[in-house]
Every structure is written in structure tokens, then in C-alpha cells.
Amino acid sequence: MRPSAARLLNILVPVKRAVDYAVKIRVNPQQTGIDLNVKHSMNPFDEIAVEEAVRIRERLKEAVKSIKVVTIGPPKSAETLRTALAMGADSAIHVEIPESDPSPEPLGVAKTLKALIERQKEGVDIVILGKQAIDDDAGQTGQMLAGLMGWSQATFASKVVVDAENKVANVTREIDGGLQELKCRLPVVVTTDLRLNEPRYASLPNIMKAKKKPIEKLLAADLGVDLTPRLETIKVEEPPKRVGGGKVENVDELLAKLKDAGITAIKRA
Amino acid sequence: MLSLRHAIRPVASRCARRWAHNIPSFSHLNAVTEEDLAQFSKILAPTSILSTLPPNSTSPDDLASYNEDWMGKYHGQANTVLRPRTTQQVSEIVKWCAKRRIGIVPQGGNTGLVGGGISLQKEIVLSLGAMSKVRSFDPVSVLYRRVKYGYPTPGILVADAGCILESLSEYIAPHNHIMPLDLGAKGSCQIGGNISTNAGGLRLLRYGSLHGTVLGLEVVLPDGTILDQLSTLRKDNTGYDLKQLFIGGEGTLGVVTGVSILTPPAPQASNNIFLALPHFDNVLPLYQTVKRQLGEIMSAFEYIDRTAYDMGLSHGLGPVLNADEVGNSQCFVLVETSGGNQTHDEEKLTGLLESLLSADKPLINTGVLSQSPSQFASLWAFREGLTECCQKEGKPYKYDVSVPLADFQKVVDAIRERMISKGLYGDHAISKVMGYGHVGDGNLHMNVIAKHGYRPELEEALEPFIYELVASHKGSVSAEHGIGSMKTHALHYSKSDVSIELMRKIKQVIDPLNIMNPGKVLP
């Protein structure tokens, strides 16, 4: 499909470095949060977002000019950017925050992304990110960003088809009642759901290429954004432990125990 | 008092055709009677006795999981299964069985692949599954206290034989230790069984065999005596090292009831890479290059041939590699690294990958590197899932052999050729011949898939052909799976008559009544 006379598409993929989903979570002794001294990796929904961006380019070919990934986090977050570059992104932006700072909140992230988008000389046509991060499960950033930018939004996407010629994205959303199809004018914010795709492993040739791809470093202050948290976490605790069951010797004992628990039989009509 | 041993088949009967289900007569053994059950009831709780004999009400179906092996290849005949909870109970059971000449088949997780845990005729199954407590574990962190009170080395796990391997891994994980062995059956296999078969697995390359990592054993001997050598000493050269007889003894010399094993510290950094090789001949040079460049951090080197890889993909394992980049790759390799420092390991890995990709004649077509713990786990899941895929393809004939690395492909191809020449290759009989395994240990797992089930003519075509082929390469007919009941007649392909005769003598001394797992290991 030949790109239209208007400029080509630029895709921005925000990613977050979160505790790896395979890790057993433990609450810290002070009950202020979880033990973060564990393995971290890219938020799985953001992995799906990077994969989708790469697939969009595989489908549209030269119509996609650039795929940029961005993360807001401590120095270690750069690893996540390298993974995204190895999956096929072209360049990366790291908005670095000090190691000791708390994790930024969705509104802060959305404002930072807005400032970044406005800085992009070539503009941004599609922002695609995970529907939620698996550490806070907030699920707000994409929607807030669309609101701040005044852009269309299509969340919980299970299928994305971009029509570069007509500058439209047809997105299928997973909702409680089933599937909903939206036709969105670009620019658009899309958030990914689990069934959108299965992310690829980083292949060795791409890992080698990724080392040469640029990572731009910025501070939130450079973008004029204040990431001070607005929410205070008061307490974090584990859910109550499951009380063990008991064994009974026979059906009569089972019935007696059910009666004790206040469960009575329903008379059949 | 010596009783008659069952007749020794002369070694020269290597021409005799043996079916997998050829059951010996065990004329020296007695069947279980109600009187025996009454005696067992005095030793064990009622829930520890499963029998189809009256007054017990167990149906044969309930005994199925003890009588059928994991592959569905061997069908046992036991009418009684005992599940003791303590070593003392095991001792009393064995004493009674010795008195009554009742055969005993010790059984762990029943995941063995050579019919070693199956009752061949009328032996009872002695299941260790109910003895599953960890007795003690001293992580490195309590070294000071232990040293102060004169206790020996830390990092040692003492456990009942019935503990499931994966449960033990999970038990010691919070203390940052790992088990020295790992295999696909980890969710079901028990440590006692692992020891009795000298299980190898995916980590042997790095941590060595159980002969080195097991420090002590508690064993109930065939006359009921309890041999307590459950030491936690790292070094103890006082007399013959008896435990080595039971490690790999496949339950023919006694019942392992307790284990003391050294657990290595968990690696701080783990990575793995999955590589596609254009030609099988690249495996050896690749192994040498990887070993040289990764050095001490290499912890596994697994081989998967093209047939196995395609089979895995077709059953939903992966996808792992981009199909275009794979092209006509003949085989694949999974390499794991385990080290103390993530940055150091990554540098070594990246250095290796750069040299592999930029070589004039690259040894690999492509590959992937895991970027997160979840990807690490799923790359391993591909390799570990192959065994289950074989079961989905049909009934596999498994040949676990040690042959020189350079001959792996030749052996697999020779078997395929053989089946083709016999008109037994195709969807009507043998649908696939494949090989995968622990290349780093020279151990190849060959799987010959019988699409519609085991048939005598298939076995005839395969055996003794495969054993003779392996013997011609001076290899082992059983690298890690053991002999069980499957390969008793093939023992002579890898061990001399002198060796076998000495093994018989040892068996005669320790188990003169031949009640302990009769019909296994020795022909």
C-alpha cells in the first residue's frame, strides 16, 4: 500500500519496568509496599504493545516511519528499553528519575508523555501501551493521556488494523458484553489487552542491532513536569490466609458439619 | 540359609527375542494372602493398605496408577500396594516379606521409563509417597551457629525418600539454594526414586551426578535391617562407600527411605539462549566454542533435532524462533548460563553471540536470548515439554544412550533407515524417529514413535539392532534411565561378563532371597 502524500506514521510505545509476573510477591516488613529486591522485566501488556507496533510496521511497511519507545523510571529501566529495541523498535527515550524516588503515578506519566509528544517535531500518530501495569493494576495512563491530548482512544484492544491512507484505526475492544469495534481517527491512543498478540523473543541479530540504536536521556524537569505523588499509600498487607479444610469419615458426618455451618437443604419442588 | 535363586539365563542367549511384556515366573516367591494382609494391618494404618484381596475393598482401578507406568507401556500385576509413613514401618514390612518370601517393588513417583517400578507378577508395590517430610535443612545463613555447636557443613538437605523433587526445590528456594538435579518429571518424581535410578537430568553438566551430591542414605535392607548412613558430612572416608551401591541400584538392593543431599547455592543470574544450526556437524564445534567462551557459567547444553523441534511446534510449544530465519536448520541447541553476577554473565553472553554471528562461516543461522524470567522459563518449557509431546504422538519406544557426540545424528538416521528398510516407517507404524538430549553429557534420548501403539514386530525391528549399534560405538545402552525390566537382556551390550558376574555376587550377598525388586537390572 503506497503511503499518502501526507507524512508517514510515527508510533510511540510507552513501556514500564515492573516486577516480573513469575516472581512470588512478598509484602515488606514495614507493610508499606512489596519487596522490590526481586527480578524485574517489561510489563507484559507493554511487551504486547511493542509487538503490535512491530507488527503494524510489518503489515504497512514504509507507511510507518518510526517506532519510538519511552520509559519513565530509574537507571535500571534502560534494560527494558534495550529489550524493546531488540524486538524491533527504532529508538528509545529514557526519562530518568532517581532510584530512591517513588514510582510515578498514572497522571504524572500521562503528563510526561503529553510533554514528550508535543516535543516530537515529526508528531506522533499512534500511541500504543499496555492496558495496565501488573504492579499497580491502575489501568489509567492510556485514558488520561487521550483526555489530556484530546485524542481518540481505544482501550483493551484485541485487534488493531491501521488504515494509513485514510488515517484511521479500526480497533476491536474486549468488553464485558463481548467485542466492540471502534473506528478511530488518527491520532489515537490504543491500550493492549492480553489476546492482541503473542510477543516475540528478541532474536540474536536484532539484539546485536539494538546495541547501536540511540537512547535519548531526559529528566522530568526538562519536560516541565512535576512527578510528585498525589496519593499516599497508608498500608499494604497480604490477603487473609486460607483456613484449612477438614476431613470427614462418612456422609453422615458431612451432613452434620454442613448443618453446623448453617447450610440447609433446599426442598425440591 | 540360601534359597534357590531363579534360573540365571545364560548370557549367550543374546539372540533370544524378548518382548517388553515377557514376565518371568518367580517360582521362588509367594503371592500375598489374606493372612499377610492381616499382618500388614498390624503394622500400618488402614489407609496405608490398598488391596483387591478381601477384606479390603480396593478396586483394580484404584491400583491402576501404581500398576501402570507413565508411558502406559508396562502393566503391573500387583494386587496389594502398601504406603508406609515411617522407616520403622518399612522395616517391619520388609521383615515380614522376607519371612514369607513375598516380592517387593519399591516405587516412588512412578515416572521411570524402563519399567523398573512395576510389579511384574505378584510382588507388592511398596510406595514411598506417604513418607514426604523434610527432616532438616541447614542453609548457609546458619553456618555460624552450626560451626559453634560443632555441626557439619551447611547447604545440606535431609529428607524422606518420598519427597517430590519440585517440592524440595520450592522448600529450599527461599534460602537461595537449588537442588543439584532437575528433570522434566520434577512435579511427580520423588527423591528416593531419583537416587535409586541415579537420575541425571538437565543440570548434570554443571553440578555432577548423584554419586557426588548425595552425602548419605538411610536404607532398609532386604532382611528388614535399617542401614542408617544419613550423614551430613562432606568428607568421610571410613570404609567402603556403601551408599554408592544403592545410588543407581534401582531398588534391587534395598529400599531407600531417607536422603542427605548437598544443595548448591542458587545462581544470582540465569540466562538462556535457543540457537538454530544449519547443519548437524556444527554441534560439536559450537559446543567447544560455547564452552570455551562461557567457561564456568555454562550450566546446560541441550540438543533438539529438527523432527523433535517441528513436533514441539505442532503441539503448541513455542513459537520460539522466526520460521524464516530458521529456514532449513537441521537442529537446535538450548544453552543455559548460571552465574553470580548478571552484568558479568551478560558480557560473556554478548561476546559469545557477537563472535558466533560475525564469524566467516557462522555456526548458527539464528537464535533468541531470553529477556526476562518468564521468557527464560518458556524457553526451558519447550525443551522439557518434548517428552509429553512424544506421548501425544503415539506410543514412544525410548532409547536413552550414551554415544560420542559426533555420532548422534548417525545413530538417529541409522534407526530411521532400518525402519524404512523393514517397511515399518510411515503413518501405519513408526511415524517419527527423533533425538534430543543432554549433548553436553554425550547423552542422546531417542524416541521412536509407534503411532498406533506398541507392537511386537516393531520391537523386533528395533531390538537388538539399536543395542548392537550403540555397542559398535562403544556407548552405553542406558545413559541415565537405568535398566529396569526393559533392558535386562541388553546389559551385556555395555558391561562385560566379568562385571555382570560380580554384580550378581553382590546381589546374592545383600538379597539372598531375591525378594527386592526381582526381575530388574540383572538378567
Automatic annotation (TrEMBL), chain A:
Protein name per its UniProtKB record: Electron transfer flavoprotein, beta subunit
Source organism phylogeny: Eukaryota, Fungi, Dikarya, Basidiomycota, Agaricomycotina
Automatic annotation (TrEMBL), chain B:
Domain of life where this protein originates: Eukaryota
Protein name: FAD-binding domain-containing protein
Species in which this protein is naturally found: Leucogyrophana mollusca
